[in-house]
Amino acid sequence: MRALRYTGILPSLLMLVVVIALNARLQPHFFGLPSLEDNIATLTPTILVCLAQAVIVLSGELDLSVGAGVSLINCLLATVPISAVGGPWGLMGLALLLALALGAINGVIVTIFGLPSLIATFATAAVWFGLALALIPQPGGELDQSVGDLYSGTVSGVPVPLFIVAGALLIWTLLGRHRLGRRIVAVGSNPAAAFQAGISVLRVKLAAYLVGWLLVGLAAIAISAQTLSGDARVGDTYTLTSVAAVVIGGISLAGGRGTPWGALVGAIVLGIVSNVIYFAGIPSIWQEFFKGIVIMSALGFMVLEQKRAAVA
Questions:
Q1: Helix 238-248 crosses helix 66-79 at what angle (to 10 degrees)?
Q2: Dihedral of alpha carbons 226, 296, 304, 56, sign
Q3: Residue 165: closest CA among 247, 83, 260, 281
Q4: What CATH topology corresponds to 2-307?
Q5: From CA 132, how far away is CA 127, in angstroms rounded?
Q6: Per-residue pLDDT of the chain (312 residues; tens, 9 = 90+)
Q7: DSSP string across 130-162
Q8: Is 246:253 a contact under the CB 8 Å cutoff?
């Protein structure tokens, strides 16, 4: 219990229990296998983007271009013929390479050129979005059905999206046991002290961007596999959602405190909130309004809880 309080994840876990209880009451057969599989597939992209943001925030930075990056990768996938890259695995490999390139660009701008990440990634978000629009001005394009079949399939009866999320969490678990993960937290907590300890702050932050954008690439693949089309605005909501999930998950935006597990819980909370609003029968024109109110309330609660913990 003390560990949960230290990481700031306890309030978000309590929040998760509440929203699950509400969703189970409103959504028929919420705990049924078909419903669980649908919810997992739908939540996977959100979870991956939120985990990506968490890794970057833990290093003491922020990335406001993750949503636009998802859109750009999605549009690329929808325009490249699958035969030109050797099949669905080649197409997904191309998506991951583009994601790493975008992460490297953001990382270099922030670390080498020393621009504040808030301003730098706000600018690159506009660039990524512009490139996505250049590829697909209007929603369209098409992905091969084989990509969708891979995503909607199962392995030993376990849905592929669940394996993807588990793989993303495994990446962080391994990082946490490796010196890179510890250095990411150390740099985010106190970059000056980390530098004096012989840690290359620039390299660690660049590595955090690369790891984060690898997860962004996986999220874009997941979205594309579900829609089998391209849309330059498909990633619009993911940036703010990822930041909200990070805060709800108890991760300090100043860096160095928290865990990606908190971002996982925050992402699930926000995803289930959307379900609750939908199954509550709220008209579609008001759904985003009420979702915003819920998110602001949750963020306010988390900020107050963090201040209370700091005073204690």
A1: 140
A2: positive
A3: 260
A4: ABC transporter involved in vitamin B12 uptake, BtuC (1.10.3470)
A5: 9
A6: 444 454 557 777 888 888 888 888 887 777 777 777 888 888 999 999 999 999 999 999 999 999 999 999 999 999 999 988 888 999 999 999 999 999 999 999 999 998 999 999 999 999 999 999 999 999 988 888 988 988 888 887 788 888 888 888 887 777 777 788 888 888 988 888 888 888 898 999 999 999 999 999 999 999 999 999 999 999 998 998 898 888 888 887 877 777 778 888 888 888 888 888 888 887 877 767 877 777 777 667 766 766 766 665
A7: HHHHHH-SSSB----HHHHHHHH-EETTEEHHH
A8: yes
Q: What is the pTM of this model?
A: 0.89
C-alpha dihedral over 55, 59, 62, 68, to 10 degrees?
A: -40
Angle CA 288–291–297, to nearest 5: 140
Query: Is residue 276 within 8 Å of residue 106, measured between CB atoms?
Result: no
Instruction: For the chain, give every domain's residue range.
Output: 2-307
Helices (H), the chain: 2-7, 10-26, 33-58, 66-79, 88-111, 117-135, 145-152, 160-177, 179-189, 191-196, 201-227, 238-248, 260-279, 284-311
The number of angstroms, rounded, from the C-alpha of 63 to the middle of its chain's C-alpha atoms is: 11
> How far is the C-alpha of 149 from the C-alpha of 146, rounded, in Å?
5
- Which structure tokens are listed for 138? 């209007």
- What's the CA gap between 253 and 263, in Å, rounded? 12
Q: Which residues contact 262 (CB under 8 A, 6 or more apart)?
A: 7, 8, 9, 12, 54, 246, 248, 249, 250, 251
